[in-house]
Write a structure and sequence with these properties.
The complex is a heterodimer of chains A (111) and B (114). With 111 residues, chain A is an all-beta fold. Helix content of chain A is 0%, strand content 57%. The chains are: A mainly beta (111), B mainly beta (114).
């Protein structure tokens, strides 16, 4: 009955590879987000989708591409992974102006 | 645009002592304010929020925060902490308009020892 679930929990890959992280929410929320938490625990918004429409797109490299097939899903695809992409990626969701609900994160390690 | 400054990166306290984690924000528009807690290797959990109304808001686990518009602050307090309160605490702000992002401070590590 997890509210916001991300898969995988851990992802270890080599530089240059392409990988995807999936996110699903069963809260009936209409807005979903991707945040990146770096090694210093700083959280930065990457993308936000409202009803499958991109509404926030921060200065993120083009190698990162979000995809929202429906309101309950927001996936993150990363091309040509770099060492600096190593971080914890959090998916979150909200309904209109309610507080964000976060998933447990995906720890990405690029070697 | 909004920004958040958490004034202390680390706060060590003894068990049962009071604690205050400080947060200041900057914004040219009206804001909503939040405190989140992150336990090791977990996601973020909402502690409390200020949307409107009473400036003193109470949250889970005995925490409370006071919104001070003149000082642009939203400090988090707890009168008596437990070992289990050891975690990372994040202050966050968003504009009240739909579509504005939730912006986080850099976090404060609260370490409670016996």
């Amino acid at each position: 009955d997890t509210a916001v679930s991300q898969t995988p929990k851990y992802l270890v890959t080599q530089m240059g590879n392409d990988k995807s992280i999936k996110c699903e929410q069963n809260l009936g929320h209409d807005t979903m987000y991707w945040y990146k938490q770096d090694s210093k625990k700083f959280l930065k918004i990457m993308f936000s989708y409202n009803n499958k429409e991109l509404i926030i797109n921060e200065t993120v490299p083009n190698r990162f591409s979000p995809k929202s097939p429906d309101k309950a899903h927001l996936n993150l695809h990363i091309n040509s992974l770099e060492l600096g992409d190593s971080a914890v990626y959090f998916c979150a969701s909200s309904l209109q102006r309610t507080p964000l609900h976060f998933g447990n994160g995906t720890r990405l390690t690029v070697t | 645009a909004q920004s958040v400054t958490q004034l202390d990166s680390q706060v060590p306290v003894f068990e049962e002592a009071p604690v205050e984690l400080r947060c200041n924000y900057s914004s040219s528009v009206s804001v909503y304010l939040f405190w989140y807690v992150q336990y090791p290797n977990q996601g973020l959990q909402l502690l409390l929020k200020y949307l409107s109304g009473s400036t003193l808001v109470k949250g889970i686990n005995g925490f409370e925060a006071e919104f001070n518009k003149s000082q642009t602050s939203f400090h988090l307090r707890k009168p008596s902490v437990h070992i289990s309160d050891t975690a990372e605490y994040f202050c966050a702000v968003s504009g009240v308009q739909a579509g504005t992002a939730l912006i986080f401070g850099k976090g404060t590590t609260l370490s409670v020892s016996s």
